[in-house]
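Subject: Sanity check before I submit

Could someone independently write out the structure tokens for this chain? I want to compare against mine line by line before I put it in a report. The sequence has 263 residues.
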Amino acid sequence: MDQFVNFLEKNKLFLMIFVALVIVALVFLAIRFEVKQKRNEKKLEKLVTLSIFSAISIILYFLYIPINWILPFIPGFLEIHFSAVPIYLGGYLFGPISGVVIAFLRFFLKVVIGTTTMGVGELSDLIIAVVTVLIASLFYQKYRTKKGAVIATFTIPFFWTVIALLANFLFVLPFYIALFKFDTVFGMLGVIPGITETNYMGYYLLFAALPFNLILSTLVSVVTFFTYKRTSHFYQKSILHLEVEEEEEEFLTNEEDNFIKKA
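---
Independent answer below. Compare away.
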């Protein structure tokens, strides 16, 4: 494990460039996909729905459970919350770029309202959300079936965990060590069995960050899968209801115009 961590240390710059290129490529594919789709959605209804999803996401960001309540060997600063669920719902309903928009709104609102991580934890969550919603929603938009939804949703834990481990290694833990000093951070990591001052990075990634992100991403994926169908049906019914009301209003307007002309 120490050899692997040392290898990553020597190739930090390459890893950062690689992650950045992956994100840029995914954004490019998402934009290209949405341009090709030429969606005929009602812009006002879409904007309202995205605003609601963003509001729910930021509320869920503040409703969390420290993971050490369940698993005492994982540091308590790692928290379980479901703020990513509205991001995936937005991506599935409207496309990958919409999911990214919700993720950015969640990030900015959380930082403005109040952050306890100097914005670093939120930045890590943002990167995870952007990468995973782009991948999952791009796949689902191409294969809009129940099987497609299952595959798209349950790819989330894999990519989420990989990105989370990279983020923790590249900047999250190093930033905290630089900000709060090593002894303070190491004191919080002391709940991890067998951790020492020489193996702290590998042990933190393997025995804390890895299981935590697998658990969190799996829970989020399950909730997303079981809420998407109902959310989609509710949205479609709302749009249909609005269209009927608009048609009735247009019909009544035409009738009034015809009556005035006859008079």
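---
OP: Matches mine. For the report I'm noting this point. The two ends are 88 Å apart (CA to CA).
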